[in-house]
Amino acid sequence: MFHDLLQWLQDVPGATDGDPATSWSQQFAGSLHLWALTEGTHVLSLILFAGTILMVDLRMLGIAFRSVPYSTLNNRVLPLTIAGFALATVTGVLLFLSNPVHYYHSVFFRAKVIFILVAAANIFWFHYRVQKNLAEWDTRPSPPLAVKLAAGVSISAWILVIVFGRLMALSFFECENMPKGTFGYAFAECEPVMRGIEELEAQAAEEEAAAAEESTEESEPAEDPAPAEEAPAQQEPEE
Ligand code: HEM
Q1: Count of domains in the chain?
Q2: Which of 71, 127, 168, 206 could form a disulfide with 108 if both were Cys (CB 3.0 to 4.6 A apart)?
């Protein structure tokens, strides 16, 4: 269902005369500077976002800023984390829309989304459970184990999001390269992708066969060619 919706999104909106190559999605993917600018902004926003998260996580682990109360540090950097996350999400969604079918069936994109969800669940668990007794450990250089655990999960999940984000640009583990029946093939829901490729290949083979047939018909001389008409004898101009 999602495959068909994303295929439509990739081919139809903005297309001139039904030509998918002119859709907004494909124009954005093929743009000279816009795509690169969007990806550059995505990466720069991650520095802001992941950098500030790392500061808070290291404080929660009792490794850095041990003399600064947790709440003081968190209140200072949280607006930057939120701004970085908002920018990363907006630019990430735009990049996704440049080639939605490809990313939707990417093993690495799926893994990345799973770990974004893990990190989000960890934030909620920390906020609603662990942070309840904040007053007890706010100024302690080394917070309790539950706080350290939340920080460990956060750092690990975001590192995996960044690693999978980087791997998305590489072509291994794409549907065309994975044998049927493997975990990756099922995880990326490769069936509709391969069906599409087979249909395109069959169509190309048909067109090639038709073109070959046409060219043999043209090159073969007709069996009984009509005798060429004799050119009328040129008359001498009368003087
Ligand atoms: C908020 C946390 C996020 C992190 C930490 C993250 C991380 C990354 C990283 C490290 C890259 C690779 C950049 C490069 O090396 O060129 C990347 C690219 C990308 N990200 Fe994200 N991302 C995040 C959110 C999102 C979201 C929400 C989406 C879409 C729903 C998204 C979609 C993409 C796409 C489509 C690419 C381009 C991959 C390519 O080069 O083909 N990202 N991301």
Answers
A1: 1
A2: 168
Range of the domain at 37: 31-170
Tell me the average confidence (pLDDT) per consecutive run of 10 residues in the chain, 239 residues long: 92 92 95 96 96 97 96 96 97 97 96 98 93 93 96 98 95 89 93 90 92 84 55 51
65 neighbors 141 (Cβ within 8 angstroms):
no
> What separation in Å is there between the alpha carbon of 96 and the centre of ligand 1?
8
Of 53, 87, 112, 167, the one to substitute when testing ligand 1's pocket (max ligand atoms within 8 A of C-beta) is 112
Contacts for 2 with CB less than 8 Å, ≥ 6 apart: 104
Whether residue 109 contacts residue 103, with contact meaning beta carbons closer than 8 Å, is answered with yes
Residue of the CA atom closest to atom 11 of ligand 1: 165
Q: What is the pTM of this model?
A: 0.84
